[in-house]
Design goal:
2 copies of one chain form a homodimer. By secondary structure, chain A is an alpha/beta fold. The first copy, chain A, has 6 helices and 11 strands.
């Protein structure tokens, strides 16, 4: 089986905003409230980390439970790991936003201009790599051990991989909210139809799910 | 994790028909053409056994690629294994409709009034069991080794498990065709909403996907 490069469950607003500005330790999404933006995913039975036994088991649960299927590694931007900028503080033993059992359970390549030693947290190992998208992908494909690579975002990282034409398949959810400003993925999904098939399906939640795959 | 009882990717016509009458060795679905009824699934990249690298990767691919996820055993009616009726012919070394590498890759409990020794084909072992739905499920849960059990059908078997209230979660696709007569799953999906949440989503293929989960 060929290894594929996949994007899963990234969510943007109707005006294409995937995260807010002014990210801080307390506010990973800046002025955007992730519980509003990602409400469709939090509501499902298979949302990572859910333990209460509740949640919906419809279309959107099929999407959250597909998150890890066949994935051997993730690539994320530094700001999806934490809010730090510039050189890492050598005394900083903070393990990132994802807690003691991050939901990845695979190697994760973290893109940064400031390399540091790998950090293992639970079943996830973060590799901090200063690399182009092509180089980072080569590394992740190797770490994935024959399985697929997920481009985890955030928005800037995803845009870099789309601009470099490195994505095979992508699911982006469009939440029924608007933010006006913030980190923007696109003007509209049709911007990508020169390279991708696009299928759009609206769920009963009001969220429109966009599925892209290479032409 | 609690083991769940799931139905995945069963397809019926608009008038609720899941298979035709007059099943023969050559026509597993009788007068119903499965390539018409299941066209939505055959068109996806993840349809079991597809090797040409083609196929769609939208919503319906998420459904076909979820088929085996977390499943440890299947229960099927005898007529999903083959067209034989009555006692098995001791000289019959036919391995069923599923070829030398059946798409199940787990133990399969085949409901029959005529027990016979287990049959291993590829990674699948068929266990031929004369049992009530409750007994068959207990056996399948044991064989599933902590994972979920899929009720694979056909229509009569699925109806038995629904009537015994043994299903936790169900996906049924409604194809845009009508047959007028045949093996009928239901008059309409709403018949089940006393016990299940129901979410209905129409895909661009014209197929309506019904997701049920327990209230």
């Amino acid at each position: 089986m060929t290894q594929r490069v996949r994007v899963q469950n990234v969510t943007v607003s109707r005006d294409g905003i995937g995260a807010g500005e002014e990210q801080t330790l307390q506010r990973p999404f800046g002025h955007v409230d992730p519980t509003e933006l990602m409400a469709w995913a939090f509501a499902t039975a298979s949302f990572p980390g859910r333990t209460d036994g509740g949640g919906s088991r419809g279309l959107e649960d099929r999407l959250t439970r597909d998150f890890a299927r066949g994935i051997g590694a993730e690539i994320m931007g530094r700001h999806k790991f934490g809010p730090q900028r510039g050189p890492w503080d050598a005394d900083d033993d903070w393990i990132g936003w994802w807690g003691e059992e991050p939901p990845f359970h695979t190697p994760v390549v973290v893109l940064t201009h400031h390399e540091r030693a790998p950090l293992s947290v639970g079943e996830t190992t973060f590799h901090f790599v200063d690399a182009t998208p092509e180089q980072a992908l080569a590394r992740a494909l190797e770490l994935a051990d024959g399985r697929d690579v997920r481009i985890g975002g955030g928005v800037s990282t995803l845009r870099q991989f789309l601009d470099a034409d490195l994505v095979d398949e992508m699911h982006v959810a469009i939440a029924p909210v608007e933010y006006g400003h913030g980190l923007r993925l696109w003007d509209r999904p049709e911007d990508l139809t020169d390279r991708f098939h696009l299928e759009r399906v609206t769920a009963p939640s009001g969220v429109e799910h966009c599925f892209f795959w290479r032409r």
